[in-house]
Specification:
OB fold (Dihydrolipoamide Acetyltransferase, E2P); two-stranded antiparallel ribbon
């Protein structure tokens, strides 16, 4: 065998080994993703919130102001400084309108609408409104506040009810202390996982 043929043979073997390694790596990645999806139970309402939101951002409330609407209504307009975009088109600042607020000596409160204050940090699930701004998808259901965890030294989020399929049976209560806080990184990974899945078909009841 000539030197040129020997080098060609060695090169072909190395290429074949490289392809096999790449194939194993892709297979492991696919297995990990499918395994995570198979062992997590994610509530339908959280899937719907993710699906219906055109923009999902983690950010900080930079400014808040209340405005009086024609009639007797009041809305709060919050300016969000985006720190990370999980879904939708990136934007540095996002204007979010929330029902309720205080104008002069008038106060308006809507059940289910969260109160935003300057400095609040959260993950916001948003959809467009008629003013070219955004509103929270599902009011409070579209807001996941960030909490500091001194023990871990990083932000955490109280997650939606996400259980392993082999979790013990029992009632699920919103606000239950058994709902362990997720790290921000884990929560954002969960949001991306749900956003990457095709939306469930809508059921039309006649």
């Amino acid at each position: 065998m000539t030197s040129g043929n020997r080098q060609s043979t060695i090169g072909n073997r190395q290429a074949a080994i490289g392809l096999r390694r790449a194939g194993v790596t892709l297979a492991l990645i696919a297995l990990a993703v499918s395994s995570a999806a198979a062992h997590l139970w994610i509530p339908a309402d959280f899937r719907e919130i993710v699906s219906e939101s055109s923009l999902i951002v983690r950010g900080r409330v930079n400014e808040v102001r209340a405005i009086a609407l024609p009639g007797s209504g009041i809305e709060t307009v919050a300016t969000i400084l985006a720190e990370n975009v999980l879904k939708g088109q990136p934007a540095q600042f996002v204007s979010v309108r929330v029902p309720g607020g205080v104008v002069g000596n008038r106060r308006s409160v809507l059940t289910g609408a969260p109160e935003l204050r300057a400095g609040d940090r959260a993950v916001f699930f948003l959809k467009r409104d008629t003013t070219a701004g955004f509103r929270l998808t599902g009011l409070s259901m579209g807001l996941y506040r960030l909490q500091g965890d001194p023990g871990l030294g990083r932000a955490t989020v109280t997650p939606p009810i996400v259980l392993m399929r082999n979790s013990p049976p029992g009632p699920i209560v919103r606000g239950d202390s058994a709902r362990t806080a997720m790290s921000l990184q884990q929560f954002e990974s969960l949001v991306r996982l749900v956003a990457a899945q095709p939306p469930a078909p809508r059921v039309i009841r006649r």
